[in-house]
Write a structure and sequence with these properties.
Layout lengths: L1 H19 L3 H21 L3 H27 L12 H32 L18 H9 L3 H21 L10 H19 L1
C-alpha cells in the first residue's frame, strides 16, 4: 500500500505539473515522469508486458513525437541563446530517481509471485505470460483489437492530424515571388527581420 500511495502521488503531481508548466519542454519532462510512474504501477500489478509497452511506446515514441512537435513550432522564431550548463546540477536528482525506480522494480518483482499466490481466486493475477490473466499479451491484444479498436484508431488519426498541422504551421511562409533573385532577396530580408526581432 505504501508503494501504491507513493506512485499515486507521483502520478497526480506529474499530471498537474504537465498541465500547469509554463514551458512546453517542462510539460514533456512531467509527462515522462507520469509515464514512468504508470509503468511502475503496472509492474506492481504483475502486468510486466503493459509496463514494457508503456515505456517503449509512450516514453520512446509518443514523447519523442511531442519533442519533435515542440522543436518544429519553435524553429525559426528567434536565434537560440546558449544558456548555462545545467547538467552538473541534474546528475544527483537523476541518479536518485533511477535508484528509486530500480528499488520499486525490485520490490515489485520480489513480491509479485507471493501476491499472485495469496490472491488466487480473488483476482485474475497469475504467472507472467499465462493467457487469461491480467496484463498478459493475449488479453492485451484481444482487448486492443476488439473492444478498444475504435479508440485506438481515433488516437492514431488525431496524432497524425496533429503532426500534419504542426508541419503546416512551421512550414515556409515566404511570399510568392516570380524570380529566383527576388526570392533570395525576400529570404534575406526575412532572416534579417528575424535576427532583429531576437535582439
Amino acid at each position: 500500500m505504501i508503494g501504491f500511495w507513493v506512485l499515486s502521488v507521483c502520478l497526480i503531481a506529474s499530471a498537474v505539473w504537465c498541465v500547469s508548466a509554463k514551458k512546453p519542454v517542462y510539460s514533456v519532462v512531467a509527462l515522462l515522469v507520469n509515464f514512468a510512474a504508470l509503468a511502475v504501477t503496472y509492474v506492481t500489478l504483475s502486468a510486466e508486458f503493459l509496463a514494457v509497452i508503456q515505456i517503449i511506446v509512450y516514453s520512446g515514441a509518443i514523447l519523442v513525437l511531442f519533442v519533435f512537435v515542440i522543436a518544429l513550432l519553435s524553429s525559426g522564431v528567434a536565434p537560440f541563446s546558449v544558456g548555462p550548463n545545467r547538467l552538473p546540477k541534474a546528475i544527483a536528482p537523476a541518479i536518485f530517481i533511477v535508484l528509486a525506480a530500480f528499488g520499486f522494480l525490485y520490490y515489485a518483482l520480489k513480491d509479485s509471485n507471493v501476491t499472485a499466490a495469496a490472491s488466487k481466486g480473488a483476482s485474475r493475477l497469475g504467472t507472467v505470460g499465462t493467457a487469461g490473466v491480467f496484463g498478459s499479451v493475449a488479453d492485451f491484444g484481444k482487448a486492443l483489437f476488439t473492444v478498444w479498436l475504435l479508440p485506438f484508431e481515433i488516437t492514431a488519426l488525431i496524432l497524425m492530424v496533429a503532426v500534419i498541422g504542426v508541419v503546416l504551421l512551421a512550414g515556409d511562409q515566404a511570399p510568392y515571388v516570380p524570380t529566383r533573385r527576388q526570392a533570395r532577396e525576400v529570404e534575406r530580408e526575412m532572416r534579417e527581420a528575424i535576427l532583429r526581432g531576437g535582439d
